[in-house]
Design brief:
single chain; alpha/beta; Rossmann fold; 35% helix; globular
Length: 234
């Protein structure tokens, strides 16, 4: 198991955002911002941090919803948590979120044991955040798992200037087939973009313990993501 700790990241305005960090056994290492789904920094996100730390990267999970409710931790298996998760999702300010992720990347570029390179891996909401980071920031690269509402920011696609991987679940109840086709049509001409498709896979196929988890797709996506990060983060 990778060593872990809970820390705070100081943002540009002096605010402090909570985060969970998992560290690899060997350094110097690249760093990954693991951007959460709508459920907060929960066991699923801590598991993902372990996955990527064990593969060789410093992996930090920021408390993306800290402005609305610091420390929220929800479970998709609990019906009582769904309304709260969806309220947080739709109230979330993407522009402020990108700014917070830029500050997080700056923090990781100087973290002890790091090599100065930083990427993101995001799930659902976090997948869109990775897309926006590739369009707006100096992040080194990003991986998006079943990113939601990327189509709402598709006009930013011409600004996508960093290597970007999108894992598309083709039976995703939140990202319909026509939306997947739109995103592919608009992004695939960019040589920096890789799109991997998972026929029959539903949204959150990589959410360990989730109702739609599917090991074959999750394992394939992880293998592709690790190979991508090795190319771009060292």
């Amino acid at each position: 198991m990778a060593r872990t700790e809970d820390i705070e990241v100081t943002l540009r305005d002096g605010s402090r955002m909570g985060a969970h960090v998992a560290y690899p056994d060997t350094t110097p290492a690249g760093a990954i911002i693991a951007i959460m789904e709508i459920w907060g920094v929960n066991d699923t996100m801590r598991y993902h941090a372990q996955e990527f730390a064990e593969a060789g990267w410093i992996t930090l999970v920021p408390d993306l919803f800290w402005r609305m409710e610091p420390g929220v931790e929800l479970d998709d298996a609990n019906p009582a948590h769904w309304d709260k998760a969806l309220d947080l999702y739709y109230d979330f300010d993407y522009d402020l979120g990108v700014r917070d992720m830029e500050d997080t990347a700056e923090f990781l570029r100087g973290i002890e044991g790091g090599n100065g390179k930083v990427g993101t891996v995001g799930y659902c909401l976090g997948g869109k955040m990775g897309y926006l980071m590739c369009c707006r920031s100096d992040i080194d690269c990003a991986v998006a798992y079943y990113g939601t509402y990327i189509e709402h920011s598709i006009r930013e696609a011409p600004n996508l200037s960093k290597p970007f991987v999108l894992h598309q679940a083709l039976a995703d109840k939140w990202v319909q087939p026509e939306v997947c086709k739109l995103i592919e049509r608009r992004l695939s001409p960019n040589p920096l973009v890789e799109i991997h498709k998972y026929p029959g896979a539903d949204h959150a196929f990589a959410r360990h313990g989730g109702t739609t988890y599917s090991a074959p797709e999750a394992e394939r996506a992880l293998e592709l993501s690790v190979e991508f990060f090795r190319r771009h983060l060292g």
